[in-house]
Amino acid sequence: MLRTTLPRTARIGRTHKLSAALVATASCAAAVALATPSQAATPAGHLAAADHLKVTAVATQAHTAKQAASKGGQQYGNNLDGWIRQSLDIMKAKGIPGSYEGLHRNIMRESSGNPNAVNGWDVNAVNGIPSKGLLQVIQPTFDTYHVSGTANKLTDPVANITAAANYAAARYGSIDNVNSAY
């Protein structure tokens, strides 16, 4: 029997977003429950100050929940996995094709995952414009294919990945189609 499933990254992304929304909702519900003790248990002189603290706590919880929902609860690590996942989210929003596997494979071939890698020996380096970053992009290519919403710095990991994927999409259809130096 043939089963159709979402790619692993789509399943994880949907699960993380749902989990963040549930946690945020539960946190708000708990804050509301804690913020509504019986009036009989609260001395009359402390009611105004206690209510102010409770309202502030609930408002803070609601704001945090709204932020989590707007970001999909997505937190990116400051590491190769986080940079790839953040780039994929930007690529998806901008209509740039590519997969985690395609990006990771090319990054490992080009820089072994070092965002500060610089190629000092190829023809570009000899001509004074060395390839840099995770996907070994030269400055003119970065300038042409830079994706708005990312840092305008060649060695920024997310900007480097996203610009390289944008270039690969224009030239080869997708970063997934690149299997050697490009």
UniProtKB/TrEMBL annotation:
Residues in Transglycosylase SLT domain copies: 107-179
InterPro entries named in the record: Lysozyme-like_dom_sf, Transglycosylase_SLT_dom_1
UniProt keywords, alphabetically: Signal
Entry-linked Gene3D superfamilies: 1.10.530.10
Extent of the signal sequence: 1-40
Entry annotated with the keyword Nucleus: no
Pfam families the UniProt entry points to: SLT (PF01464)
Protein name: Transglycosylase SLT domain-containing protein
